[in-house]
Design brief:
Layout lengths: L1 E7 L2 E5 L4 E3 L4 E2 L3 E5 L7 E8 L6 E4 L2 E3 L4 H13 L10 E8 L9 H16 L7 H4 L14 E5 L10 E6 L7 E6 L10 H11 L2 H22 L3 H20 L10 H17 L4 E5 L5 E6 H14 L12 E3 L1
Bound molecules: ligand 2P0.
GO molecular function: ATP binding; diphosphomevalonate decarboxylase activity
Keywords: ATP-binding, Cholesterol biosynthesis, Cholesterol metabolism, Lipid biosynthesis, Lipid metabolism, Lyase, Nucleotide-binding, Steroid biosynthesis, Steroid metabolism, Sterol biosynthesis, Sterol metabolism
Organism: Ceutorhynchus assimilis
Length: 330
């Protein structure tokens, strides 16, 4: 019998991945950049057991048994096994996968990114695979390739039709910018109508704005963002982060039918951030919103207390008062 346990971080994009050029291989239409959060507070944890005695493959997620036939799971497993040494005896045994997230789905954070990064990393350990695996994690969930690394990470879209160059690379580790924090403002809402995968498929098919975003806006913005991170230039970082979030949501609204992930509270938080920055006479906090209403705030540690007290004052009831509503370290 062999057993392996791994953990992987969630990540929050500052230049968003929105749109695929290949649905099956999960190849994006633009590069993206994110920060992986410290695994001290939130992470995915996966244990894989393999034994000659296991009669079938099994997969549990947060205590519930899942089908083992999901194409995303089988694609990852196939890609990993292809890289393994055929002579490994346990390569041919069945496996049992047990995955858990230690954060509530209510936090609205992309659990599939941490989950697939963790699964692929654990499989790589199990079958003694070394080297690049982010392009395999990508086949589980696009954003998972960024969770293979800590710190600031760029997913290069690549040019290959089969995707071997569509992979993530670390820009700098988290301790490059140790003061950086992320607040997750959990906004009450009912379940979203479109998953990220469905939403980006509709946008890619129907929006004319998305082509301009992918071909003109993001290529310029991504280089500027990399420089802002390397130079720890918060002004530039904040402007690019907010503009890119706005651009992704503009493309969602430009889709047909239009897709609105943000609600009134998200919009109010965005207005509050702009007012707060105007008051401070510089950009001290930056919002970014994924495929849901929860609004994330990148800010430096020195700003957390001030900004949170304003948020608590303005939204005493609208933002869930839970433990994720505080400064998370990268
Ligand atoms: C991102 N999102 O860059 C963007 C911003 C959501 C909004 O990556 O279909 O779960 O599995 O590749 O990775 C969420 O999309 O989608 C996402 P699939 P995924 O973080």
């Amino acid at each position: 019998m062999k057993m392996i346990t791994c953990i992987a971080p969630i990540n929050m994009a500052v230049i968003k991945y929105w749109g695929k050029r290949d649905e099956e291989l999960i190849l994006p239409i633009n590069d993206s950049i994110s920060a992986s959060l410290s695994t001290d507070v939130m992470c995915a944890k996966t244990t894989i057991v393999t034994s000659a005695l296991l009669k079938e493959n099994k997969f549990w997620l947060n205590g519930q048994e899942q089908s083992f036939d999901s194409p995303r799971l089988t694609n990852c497993l196939r890609a990993i096994k292809k890289r393994a040494d055929e002579k490994l005896p346990h390569l041919h045994w069945n496996i049992s996968i047990c995955s858990e997230n230690n954060f509530p789905t209510a936090a609205g954070l992309a659990s599939s990114a941490a989950g697939y990064a963790c699964l692929v990393y654990a499989l790589a350990q199990l079958y003694n695979i070394e080297g690049e695996i982010s392009n395999i994690a990508r086949q589980g969930s696009g954003s998972a390739c960024r969770s293979i690394y800590g710190g600031w990470v760029r997913w290069h879209k690549g040019n290959s039709p089969v995707g071997e160059d569509s992979l993530a690379k670390q820009i700098v580790p988290a301790d490059h910018w140790p003061e950086m924090r992320l607040l997750v403002l959990v906004v009450n809402d009912t379940k979203k109508k479109y998953s990220s995968a469905k939403g980006m498929a509709i946008t890619t098919l129907t929006s004319s704005l998305i082509k301009y975003r992918a071909n003109e806006i993001v290529p310029r913005r991504i280089e500027a963002m990399e420089q802002a991170i390397l130079n720890k230039n918060f002004q530039s970082f904040a402007e690019l982060t907010m503009k890119d979030s706005n651009s992704m949501h503009a493309c969602c609204l430009d889709s047909f039918p239009p897709i609105a992930y943000m609600n009134e509270v998200s919009h109010s938080i965005i207005q509050l951030v702009h007012l707060y920055n105007d008051y401070k006479k510089e950009l001290t906090v930056a919002y970014t919103v994924d495929a849901g209403p929860n609004t994330c705030i990148y800010l430096l540690e020195s700003e957390v207390e001030d900004f949170l007290s304003i948020v608590n004052f303005v939204f005493p009831n609208n933002v869930d008062d839970n433990e994720y509503y505080r400064g998370l370290k990268l």
